[in-house]
Amino acid sequence: MSSDLHQELQDLLTEHESGMVAYTKAITRDLESARDCVQDAFIRYAALREKGEQIDFPRAWLYRVASHRAYDLLRRRKLENKARDDDKIDSPAEAEAPDLVMELKCRDEALAIALDELGDPARSIVSWRLRSGLSYDEIATRLKLNPSHVGVILHRSLKKLRDRFASHLTAEILP
Q: Which residues lie closer than 8 Å to 2 by C-beta, 6 or more apart?
């Protein structure tokens, strides 16, 4: 890293870090997560500048990247909490009636078959998005696709699953 870039980063950090942390903390409601978001923004900024890219409005760029990271973090937390809640509800061990246990097993088997029928890359996109909570950008990077194309494939795949299981599944299971 050149000394000019190092000085540029130092100046930006000194000038904007505390405001960015406060801003992202308001989004995440967690100081450590806010600091991580700000750190990620500065790391991405440094990487782009090392490649020689010019960023016209560094302050705006840093705030945008940090806030996007904070919102991604919130979405990931929400998906993790939802998955944990679904596991508690759908656990056959906790089911009271044998017919409910059988219904849950049949539903899971039917869903697994339907996911297999989607084929790749749709199956991978649905799994990574809903089970792992990956962002469109992360999925696009793994599959070497455009993030907007990932969104289209995900939308169409979820629509197919919803149509297939309209009478069996509620909107809580397939958003």
A: none
In this structure, the answer to whether residues 74 and 111 fall within a common structural domain is: no
Domain shared by 145 and 119, yes or no = yes
Region of 8 please: left (phi>0), alpha (psi -120 to 50) or beta: alpha
Nearest residue to 90 via CA among 104, 107, 109? 104
- How many domains, in total, are found in the chain? 2
Other CB atoms within 10 A of residue 32 CB: 9
Q: pLDDT per residue over 49-85, tens digit each?
A: 999 899 899 999 999 999 999 999 888 888 777 766 6
Radius of gyration for the chain, computed over Cα atoms and rounded to the nearest angstrom: 21
Structure tokens of 67?
């806030």
Where helices occur in the chain by DSSP H, the ranges are 3-28, 31-50, 58-90, 98-118, 122-130, 136-143, 147-164
Name residue 40's amino acid. Answer: D
Q: What is the pTM of this model?
A: 0.48
